[in-house]
Design brief:
This protein is mainly beta. It contains 4 helices and 53 strands.
Length: about 675
């Protein structure tokens, strides 16, 4: 079974759906009865497994009486009765049995060496006479209940024994090797039976297993409004619950100013404004990061493929992106150089966070550093007041050529440089005609009618840039002659226009990347105007809830992703409302006042080790009653150093340790081994 995105009128007309689509003759499941010790039986002269007959067999949780067990060279066949009552009756004797609340009065009216015959009065007063039945024969009564003969005795002389043993059951089951299942003598064509046996020697047979194979006889669906129920038995149901995505982030790719493309990205501090990444004319992209010709709105990316050095020109540049990652965590900031000033023959610059509006580095001189968040560190290089430029270098793990969403999607930005007048792949630096990298203001610009914007998911283990690749073609040479999103292709999964499903007649097409995260693409293709798309990124491994239950079970779908709003606070910003909740406290007691409340003081280095038993290259995960609310818990996630704390956060995210009060985990940072 494959969980897919499909549009099938047999399910719902013009409605893209998530679920499992099973074509005709697709195997759904096998139900097997396997015996720890093989049942063994003699094979009598009539080819019957006589030692198995009149035994109970449990099939799908219900008990059946094995009426007949045939063992011929060409086939093996079992006939069983469920909900049965068995009686021995003499000729002309009357006996009453009850099966599933219904009574049946049975009289044996005929018996000879081969056949028996009965009259039966059911609980509704209906009287019926069976046909003549040999041992193993069955007869269906008016209400569908089966009467079967399990034995007979006949002595043809006065006073001789003339009796029979009969069974009345709620329904009859016929299991014959390689044949369709029969229920009450009617074929259930979706279920094929298999009986595995082996010759035990001396006229004996061992039964190894009984298998019922369920295959579809038509297109079937396990989706939001469609379940599959095991045919005949009606004892199992396959049902869709929900599609679970840990979170949803939306990256927007859209047209701006006739010939430009901009993106809106959810980064650590919030959604960015529209960032113009490309612009040009009616046939080609000419500029990186320009919203429209002549305007001061360049996105300044690095002048090198490695992406670690940037020269920002305030006369033409508007934004730059500073990003950092350590393979499993990342952060990005949209920044601008808001001023370059001179005082006492010294040049100064100020860098501003565009999303928050606050300065992150104010009046910085050459060689000064600017620290942003937990990972980004910028070193100020040459500042030229007259040219209105400043050179910035980013630390190891950093780049000016890419941007990370808060949830970990990597987006590679166009680069403001070419090498030998040829395009460069921003990942490898190799020459690539598919990556039309442009140089603003150069006499030797590389122009192109299309550009491939590359985005890369995390893998299921949270490794950045290791998941499926989305190559988004931005077109400047189409019939609309405007910058637009034209096509998305993901990896080798065949994810392209052919995999999109239109939602009704909305001109909006849905598609999903075939990956562990299942990133969703919403492609907007209006009848007039330009195409645009939203990339709905799921942050972590996504999955579908598919339940195998009894038919009477009611499944309440999970709600999927829930937007929590802001749940992150600095220790000095903790509100009374937040204090009344369960807390995850990140950072040691030397730097975090809430951690100090938990550990009983602002403990640093040796004092922290003495209190917790955690030293260099180690971290602590401890759960206590919250210092602010005894009915809530606080989980302390703290390392000996900042890098240890980062690893502790990764551990908690991936391993989900117990939140029960008393949990106290001490781990070695590098290996997660327990601290001795």
């Amino acid at each position: 079974m494959n969980f897919t995105h499909f549009d099938d009128d047999d399910y719902k007309a013009d409605t893209p759906s998530l679920g499992i689509k099973m074509p005709t003759s697709t195997k759904v499941l096998n139900y097997s009865i396997e015996f720890k010790k093989y049942p063994r039986s003699d094979v009598d002269s009539n080819g019957r497994l006589e030692d198995m007959e009149d035994r109970d067999l449990i099939v799908l949780g219900k008990t059946y009486k094995l009426l007949n067990a045939y063992n011929y060279s060409s086939y093996t066949k079992f006939e069983l009765m469920r909900g049965s009552a068995t009686e021995t009756i003499n000729l002309n004797e009357e006996k009453t049995v009850t099966v599933e609340g219904k009574s049946y009065t049975v009289t044996l009216i005929y018996v000879d060496a081969t056949y028996t015959q009965y009259t039966v009065v059911d609980s509704k007063g209906n009287t019926q006479t069976t046909t003549k039945l040999a041992k193993g024969g069955t007869y269906k009564l008016l209400d569908g209940t089966q009467l079967g003969v399990t034995d007979l005795s006949y002595q043809a002389f006065s006073g001789g024994v003339m009796s029979a043993q009969f069974t009345i059951g709620a329904n009859k089951l016929t299991i014959e090797d390689t044949q369709p299942l029969e229920i009450d003598d009617t074929d259930v064509n979706e279920i094929t039976c298999y009986i595995s046996k082996t010759d035990a020697g001396s006229g004996k047979q061992d039964i190894k297993s009984i298998t019922l194979e369920w295959k579809t006889d038509d297109d079937m669906f396990i989706a939001k409004d469609s379940t599959m129920v095991l045919p005949g038995f009606k004892t199992l149901k396959l049902e869709y619950g929900s599609f679970i995505a840990p979170c949803e982030e939306k990256v927007q790719v859209k047209n701006t100013d006739s010939y430009g493309v901009e993106i809106v990205v959810p980064i650590k501090d919030g959604d960015t404004p529209g960032i113009g990444i490309l612009n040009g004319n009616a046939t080609d992209f000419l500029y990186v990061g320009r919203s429209k010709d002549g305007d001061k709105n360049f996105l300044r990316t690095s002048t090198t493929v490695t992406g670690t050095t940037l020269t920002f020109d305030r006369d033409i540049d508007k934004y730059f992106v500073a990003s950092w990652n350590d393979s499993t965590s990342a952060e990005s900031y949209l920044l601008e150089v808001s001023s370059i000033t001179e005082s006492d023959n010294k040049n100064y610059t100020t860098v501003r966070n565009v999303v928050t509006g606050s300065n992150v580095g104010e009046n910085k001189q050459e060689t000064n550093t600017i620290t942003i968040g937990s990972g980004v560190e910028l070193t100020v290089g040459e500042i030229h007041k007259n040219d209105n430029t400043v050179v910035l270098t980013i630390n190891t793990g950093g780049s000016f050529n890419r941007i990370y969403t808060k949830g970990g999607l990597t987006i590679y930005l166009p680069i403001n440089a070419t090498e030998g007048d040829q395009a460069l792949d921003p990942v490898s630096g190799a020459v690539s005609t598919n990556w039309n990298i442009l140089t603003n203001g150069s006499e030797n610009n590389t122009y192109a009618g299309s550009y491939i914007l590359k985005m890369v998911e995390e893998d299921k283990d949270g490794n950045l840039g290791s998941g499926s690749i989305l190559n988004i073609t931005l077109d400047q040479s189409g019939s609309s002659s405007e910058g637009e999103a034209d096509e998305v292709v993901a990896d080798d999964s065949g994810f392209s226009d052919g995999n999109y499903r239109e939602v009704g007649d909305s001109n909006i097409y849905d598609g999903y990347v075939h990956s562990d995260l299942g990133t969703k693409i919403e492609f907007k293709k209006p009848t007039s105007g330009t195409n645009s798309l939203d990339v709905i990124y799921h942050c972590e491994q996504s999955y579908a809830e598919i339940f195998l239950t009894a038919p009477e079970t009611v499944i309440t779908p999970s709600t999927g992703t829930t937007e929590l709003g802001s749940v992150t606070y600095k220790d000095n910003e903790l509100t009374d409302t937040a204090k009344a909740k369960n807390l995850i406290v990140v950072g040691g007691s030397c730097v975090n006042t809430v951690a100090a409340e938990i550990l009983g003081g602002s403990l640093c280095e040796a004092d922290f080790t003495a209190k917790t038993g955690v030293g260099a290259n180690q971290f602590l995960v401890q759960v206590v009653a919250s210092p602010y609310s005894s009915s809530k818990v606080a989980m302390l996630v703290a390392g000996y150093e900042a890098e240890d704390t980062k690893k502790a956060v990764t551990y908690v995210t991936k391993e989900a340790p117990s939140t029960a009060v008393g949990t106290n985990l001490k781990k070695v940072t590098a290996t997660y081994a327990d601290v001795a």
